[in-house]
C-alpha cells in the first residue's frame, strides 16, 4: 500500500487525454513515537489537497486553489473536520480487533484505509477502489465488479462475511465510486486546473555512493507523476541489472524518481553504450543522459531532497460533506465509508 518548481515547458504535444485520480488515506496507529495516532490526507493526481490529524483536530486545505470549494459551501472544512474527528475512534477500534485476530498484544501497529476513484477526461470512464491494510500488508479489498470483498488473509474472513452481508452499505459504496467520487474529482480538477495540468521538466543527475556501487539515474522536480525512466544499452531497454525506485513526492508538489544500474560487469570502454532515458507524459522529447564517469556525483550521500521527501511521504501515509451515523460506520455523502472490522 503504497505516494507530490517551475521550469520552462519544452516539447509539449498539445492537449492529451489524462486519467485523474482522487485518493484518501486514513491511517490509525498505536505506539508509534512522535507521530499522531490518526492522520487523514486527500490527494488529487498525487498532490495533497487536505490534511487532518489527531494532534490538530482540524482538516485543512493544502493547496491554495482548494479554498475555492468554500465559495459556495462555507461549512465545507468544518464538515471535513467533523469527519476527521469521528473516524479516529473507528480506526483505533479496528487496530484492537486486528490485534486480537492476529494474537498480538503491544507494539507498533498500523491500520490504513485507502479509497478513491480515477476518471479518464477523454472517455469519461471512471473506476473506484477501496482497500484496507494492516501492518503494511493487504487486509481486505473491495471488488467493485462483483460488489464483494476479497480477504487475502484468514484473519480478514470474518470482516469479509460481515461486510458482504451489509448490502445497504455495498449499494452506498457503489454509488460513491460511480457517482459521488467522480463528481468531486471533476470539481477539484476544475479548481486546480492551472496547477494540476501543468508540465514541469526535471533535472536529471547520475549519482554513485562509491566506485563499486550501482549508478543511480535520479530525476527530480518533474510534474505530473506520469513518468517513466529506464536504462538502455545500444538503444535497447535493459531489464537485467537494473532496480527501479518508486515515484516520490517533493515538498514543493513536484516528484522525483530513480533507476539504478549495476555496473560491476560493465567495462570502462563500454560505458558510453549506456544511457538513462526519462519520459514525461505530454512531452514529446525524452531526456537522455549518457553514462559518463565525468558527470557522476560521488559524494557518498543520498540527495537531501530524496531523504526528506521519502520521510515526508512515509509520515503522510502513517497520518468529506454531510455526515450521518448509521450502525457502526460513518457515512459520507461526499466520501466513502470508514467501517468497523
UniProtKB/TrEMBL annotation:
<dbReference type="InterPro" id="IPR013783">
    <property type="entry name" value="Ig-like_fold"/>
</dbReference>
<dbReference type="Pfam" id="PF00129">
    <property type="entry name" value="MHC_I"/>
</dbReference>
<keyword id="KW-0325">Glycoprotein</keyword>
<dbReference type="InterPro" id="IPR001039">
    <property type="entry name" value="MHC_I_a_a1/a2"/>
</dbReference>
<dbReference type="InterPro" id="IPR050208">
    <property type="entry name" value="MHC_class-I_related"/>
</dbReference>
<comment type="similarity">
    <text>Belongs to the MHC class I family.</text>
</comment>
<feature type="domain" description="Ig-like">
    <location>
        <begin position="202"/>
        <end position="276"/>
    </location>
</feature>
<dbReference type="InterPro" id="IPR037055">
    <property type="entry name" value="MHC_I-like_Ag-recog_sf"/>
</dbReference>
<dbReference type="GO" id="GO:0009897">
    <property type="term" value="C:external side of plasma membrane"/>
</dbReference>
<dbReference type="InterPro" id="IPR036179">
    <property type="entry name" value="Ig-like_dom_sf"/>
</dbReference>
<keyword id="KW-0732">Signal</keyword>
<dbReference type="InterPro" id="IPR011162">
    <property type="entry name" value="MHC_I/II-like_Ag-recog"/>
</dbReference>
<dbReference type="InterPro" id="IPR003597">
    <property type="entry name" value="Ig_C1-set"/>
</dbReference>
<dbReference type="Pfam" id="PF07654">
    <property type="entry name" value="C1-set"/>
</dbReference>
<dbReference type="GO" id="GO:0005615">
    <property type="term" value="C:extracellular space"/>
</dbReference>
<dbReference type="GO" id="GO:0006955">
    <property type="term" value="P:immune response"/>
</dbReference>
<protein>
    <submittedName>
        <fullName>Class I histocompatibility antigen</fullName>
    </submittedName>
</protein>
<feature type="signal peptide">
    <location>
        <begin position="1"/>
        <end position="17"/>
    </location>
</feature>
<dbReference type="InterPro" id="IPR011161">
    <property type="entry name" value="MHC_I-like_Ag-recog"/>
</dbReference>
<dbReference type="InterPro" id="IPR007110">
    <property type="entry name" value="Ig-like_dom"/>
</dbReference>
